[in-house]
Amino acid sequence: MPTREIEFRDAIREAMSEEMRRDQRVFLIGEEVAEYNGAYKVSRGMLDEFGPRRIIDTPISESGFAGLAIGAAMYGLRPIVEFMSWSFSLVAADPILNNAPKMLFMSGGQFGCPIVFRGNNGAGGQLGSTHSWCVEALYSNVPGLKIAMPSNAYDAKGLMKTAIRDDDPVFFLESERLLSLKSDVPEEEYFIPFGKAAIRREGADVTLVSWGRPVLFCMEAAETLAKEGISCEVIDGRTIRPMDWETVFASVRKTNCCVVVDQSWSFASPGSEVAAQVSQHCFDDLDHPVLRVHSDDVPAPYAQNLEQEMLPNPRKICEAVRKVTYRL
Amino acid sequence: MPIATLASDTSTHLLKSPNGIAPGKRPEIPAATLRAWLSQMSLIREFEVRCMQAYQDKKIGGFCHVYIGQEAVAVGCVAALEPRDPLVTAYRDHGHALARGMHPKHCMAEMFGKIGGCAKGKGGSMHMFDKANNLFGGHGIVGAQCPLGAGLAFATKYQDEVINSGKSDCVTLCFLGDGALNQGALHEAMNLAGLLDLPVIYVVENNGYSMGTAIERGTTMAHKITSKAVGYGIEGLEVNGMDVVDVYVAMKDLIDRCRATSRPAFVDMRTYRYKGHSMSDPRKYRGREEEERYEVEDPIGKLEKLVKDKNYATPAEIEAIYDGVKTLVRESIAWADASPVPSLDELYHDVYVEKWGPYTGTSLPQMLTEKP
Lengths: 328, 372
What we know:
The complex is a heterodimer of chains A (about 325) and B (about 375). Chain A is of the alpha/beta class and about 325 residues long. Chain A has 2 domains: about 5-185, 3-Layer(aba) Sandwich (Rossmann fold), CATH 3.40.50; about 200-325, Rossmann fold (3-Layer(aba) Sandwich), CATH 3.40.50.920. Chain A has helices at about 10-20, 45-50, 60-75, 95-100, 105, 135-140, 155-165, 215-225, 245-255, 270-280, 305-310, 315-325, and strands spanning about 5, 25-30, 55, 80-85, 115-120, 145-150, 170-175, 180-185, 200, 205-210, 230-235, 240, 260, 290-295. A 7-stranded mixed sheet of chain A has the order 3-2-4-5-7-6-12, sandwiched between helices. Chain A has a 5-stranded mixed sheet with strand order 9-11-10-13-14, sandwiched between helices. In chain A, strand 10, helix 8 and strand 11 (about 230-235) form a beta-alpha-beta unit. The longest helix of chain A is centred in the first third of the chain and has 15 residues, at about 10-20. The radius of gyration of chain A is 20 Å and the shape is globular. The mean pLDDT of chain A is about 95. Chain B is α/β, with parallel strands linked by helices and about 375 residues long. The model of chain B is unreliable at about 1-10 (pLDDT under 50). Chains A and B meet through helix 3, helix 4 and helix 5 of A and helix 6 and helix 7 of B.
């Protein structure tokens, strides 16, 4: 399959544009998505191609436009809602958590909600506490929604195509820090199914489980650890709901050790869910309790050195791996 | 002594005639239509009375908010709509469901938590949905339905104009209580509706109280709430919600204009709920004297008198309407009693459309699949 190297943001735009050409029910709505070409240029050029009826600028009014899009989805349209940052989704908590994921159930199967919410998630780089939310811990607690969290451009496109065609609400978590990263993306159309993890690096001594940007930290740590003779298997979950437990369990049964790397806070998080599931299903295989690397349990700081220390980083991952493999 | 009364009192809280319709200029409504409205309004009244009994008997659980006193609003508004027009409302929703055409047996079975309910017993009193009749809920969080209403209007317009390259031809009615006037969701929705030219009408069923808080204790400009819409460039209208003819005439005109212009509107629908906010409300915030003053405004009594005065029905025919309604509700209760509780498998059904993990996909309720 012929490929070319494109940025993460271009991959998302390609997925949205392809689906909009195919299906008139799909439209994009959010702050600055049209005339400004996207606050982070993800939607660059889409207004020119699709016009203002399908690429819709909104005022700064997340609760209003998120709820509007959910009403449109109930009627049968397939909205894509851009949150400039997932941090801003908190003011839309009622529509995105109380309406979108529950509508099908509360209506006894009458009204589904085929909608994609997408935008930047996690620390962007010295944005301070209010703008640095990692919402995966908050939102993965809620049944009725799906969560995708790609770590590279190839996955971003394939997962976004799947998200737009999904009949259930999808929360698509991007990262400002990944948008300019390039990877090889096929010219031809492709899809990546939800609930199918990717093994980014095969290894024998320890299983690292992560999603999104922290997968890159895991790969960096694995390089360092390889020089110390520790062989890491790195699993990129790709989606959090559904989670590919079989791939995780199979790896842990091989390596007998597990470290989960999750950029959200540790209490009641995807990381704690992995620790619980692995402990339950691989109890006899584990040589050490599952260890977790999270953001520190404090608000995100502004100062660069403090932010670096607070987030999961290769140093913290290396320390956890050495401990779980008894190399300390 | 009541803790608070409506400062506006009966003389001003209830309007005597709607804006724009001079006394004596009301169009003639055909006899059959008035009789049909009397039947629908008395059906809602009887249904709600029996709901209150069923709640006391513990056949209905959770929260239950009855519509007694407000029947003219749902019946008059729905009569002015086309069947294709979407309708969305708040949690005091039984009246809207019945007016829109849901069979009372499915409405009652929903409250009984039975599989025959409109939502298979998964939604309850506050969450009535009926896809066949374009009823998009029943929403339990105050004001949450307001952005959804804007979205429904967005969707009909998008379908008509963008997908079908035609002219926008639907109007969405979004009902809310006066308590929702103070929720941000309404204001964000009105701003978007004004900005995007959405054909949605926000109908405030202004019964003077948000739970136990009289309207002037909760909102500014309580005597002129249409002023809240003015700032969003939205036309406001005050309507007497205690007279079904007034409601119909005012709403028909407004809906026709909204359909033609594809612009939003806002209605201060003055009404009164005769019962408490919910079943647990002893109504200590208002006096019995106040309630008695409003009881003479009973919309059903008023319509019955109109039908009699015009000789559109004999007393015996009116009795037959009431008897028919009683029978229908009695049969609906029996049907709901006989409907099974949902099987435990239903827990993992209708959570996701897609089958994955423990989730078993989705299917339509009996209400939409059974042969009439």
